[in-house]
Specification:
Layout (H helix, E strand, L loop, with lengths): L29 H13 L7 E3 L14 H16 L6 E4 L9 H7 L2 H4 L3 E4 L15 H23 L1
Parallel strand pairs: 1-2, 2-3
């Protein structure tokens, strides 16, 4: 059995994913809420990996600086909560159809070299659903497959 723990909070910058941080727009606490869900899931099973797709709100000059370092800290926190310092994490690129997203994608490309047992799922060839932000259905399905391939690869390396 595979269980997914959805923790998405649309439109949030990575700064909202810190302990105790409230996202002003949604009035939610993304990190705290995700951690609560993680702990609940751990009562019934074992956390085998995390997929991360976020960054649109940080894809502007002045908001993108230090994104990778913040993601590195966040991954460490999630791994600590899960009790697995090598928990596989796959981050997804933002859509390549918006030039500003390269500010985040360029940093994500460095993730596997900086943080062990991580990978990046490419968004190459994907299209948006007409809003220049969100992936269309076919792209979202393809992205899911890319996330799965990267996760399975990381999990296999962890076993070896």
């Amino acid at each position: 059995r595979i269980g997914l723990i959805p923790c998405a909070v649309g439109g949030t910058p990575i700064e909202s994913w810190e302990p105790g941080a409230m996202d002003r727009a949604t009035k939610k606490y993304p990190y705290d809420d995700a951690t609560k869900r993680l702990k609940i899931a751990m009562k019934k099973g074992v956390i085998k990996g995390i997929i991360w797709l976020q960054g649109e709100a940080n894809s502007k000059p002045g908001r993108s600086e230090g994104y990778l370092e913040k993601l590195e800290v966040l991954i460490g926190r999630f791994r600590e909560t899960a009790g697995d310092k090598n928990l596989p994490v796959v981050a997804g690129e933002l859509g390549r159809y918006r030039p500003a997203y390269s500010l985040i994608n360029e940093q994500l490309a460095q993730l596997p070299g900086k943080v062990k047992n991580t990978a990046v799922a490419s968004s190459e060839g994907f299209t948006h659903k007409g809003d220049n932000t969100h992936f269309d259905a076919a792209s979202a399905t393809g992205f899911g497959k890319r996330f799965a391939e990267k996760m399975l690869s990381l999990q296999q390396k962890k076993i070896d």
